[in-house]
Amino acid sequence: MKRVLSAVVLSFILLSLSAQTKPEFRGVWIATVDNIDWPTKGDYNSNSQKASFIKMLDMQQRNGINALVVQIRPCTDAFYPSPYEPWSQWLTGVQGQPPSPYYDPLAFMISETHKRGMVFHAWMNPYRAEFNLVNSSLSATHITKVHPEWFLVYGDKRYFDPGNKEAQQYVTQVVSDVVSRYDVDAIHFDDYFYPYRIAGKEFPDEATFRKYGAGLTKDDWRRSNTDSIISKLSFAIKKENKKCQFGISPFGVWRNQDKDPIDGSRTIGAQTNYDDLYANILLWLKKGWIDYVAPQLYWEFGHRIAPYEVLLSWWSNHTYGKHCYVGMGIYRANSNPAWKELSQLPRQIVAMRNTPNMKGMIFFSSKTFERNPNGWSDSLRLNYFKVPVKVPEMSWLK
User: Which of 12, 21, 33, 53 suits 131 as a labelling partner, its CA being 20 to 30 A distant?
Assistant: First the structure.
């Protein structure tokens, strides 16, 4: 009987807290790398691509989503006509080949998104240059062919060398070009700065470190390189459009408490932003280089290494006046017993809404909504996102 009552009480609490009428960021990631979300793998017809994007957009609008975060530069390539980089292989099947019939996918997506009263964040990957060395096919104009000295191989991928100042300037030019020519509401980067560590392999930047290290430890030098590109990009974006936002979606753990007893989170193990990816997110927030942070909290309540509730609280205390949107792992549905619980995602939304300094959420990723896992698409549409709202304004950009 007590269990029945508890379930009833929980349902009542979740339902009573589901109504939300104040501004809230309700975003979804649309990944184009390897055709994860769009376009459909093997669909290289422009008209078909447009139709499938509109279908996806309409679905997300019905779900109550008010922001799209669309990957337009997945691997030093482009989903738009770029003066710097070739057309993406995931758009046309062959890198460097334009769409047929010809169209500008970025202009099209922005127009359709804004037409529905939603905002468009242009998601770009800063340093990944070749997705898979085994089966990739690069165009003759790809930057790795033009400036091979800017790149390093690590695992099965090729990356820009983050310590190379010419490479940093190139990435800045690519981003500036997009902001200057397109009505994007934000530039968005995810968690790939220095690559995630591969066990037993050191990232091969020793030669660059010897050249530019300037007496720093290698870890501090790597962090300074990442700080440098973020500050450059922040300045360049605002120079082109003062109202264009700059946001970062980092890995969910900044540092573990064993490495930093004062600012670290009560998490254990795993790789972290500061110590492994060399991304000093807190510095970027303090300096005002970025306008929002969207930590990827893809773990469940009570996770033994990185509990959702612990990290939610930690990020709430480390926003430094900027917006924080929680990255939610709807793709985890039914992946383990915790994610089979119908209440897992609704509880996360309620907890986020009842945590100070949280301004909304972004779901990874769009494709998952098509399956309506655990009825969560219905739940968003009928309960949690029932009332359409605008995204929160940023006072410093008014």
Answer: 53
270: left (phi over 0), alpha (psi -120 to 50) or beta: left
- In angstroms, the CA 23 to CA 179 distance is 25
> Is residue 19 a contact partner of residue 387, using CB atoms and an 8 Å limit?
yes
Closest CA to 336 of 299, 375, 377: 299
DSSP state of 160: E
Structure-token pair, residue 122? 């242009």
Cα separation, 165 vs 234, whole angstroms: 16
CB within 8 Å of 4: residues ≥ 6 apart: none
Q: Kindly give, in sequence order, each residue whose CB lies less than 8 Å from that of residue 120, ignoring residues fewer than 6 positions away.
A: 67, 68, 70, 109, 110, 113, 114, 183, 184, 185, 186
Q: What are phi and psi of 306, to 5 degrees?
A: -140, 80
Average of per-residue pLDDT across 198-203? 96
Amino acid at 160: F
pLDDT above 80: residue 93: yes
Question: What confidence tens digit (pLDDT) does each residue in 109-162 have?
Answer: 999 999 999 999 999 999 999 999 998 889 999 999 999 999 999 999 999 999
Are 259 and 204 in contact by the 8 Å Cβ rule? The answer is no
- Sequence ranges of the domains in the chain: 21-392
| Whole-prediction pTM | 0.95
CATH 3.20.20.80 fits 21-392, yes or no: yes
pLDDT for the residue 18: 54
Task: Using alpha carbons, list the distances in angstroms from residue 178 to 24, 117, 333.
Answer: 26, 21, 35
Q: How far apart are CA 368 and CA 365, in angstroms?
A: 6
Tokens encoding 315: 């990020």
Separation of CA 386 from chain center: 25
> pLDDT per residue over 162-190, tens digit each?
999 999 999 999 999 999 999 999 999 99
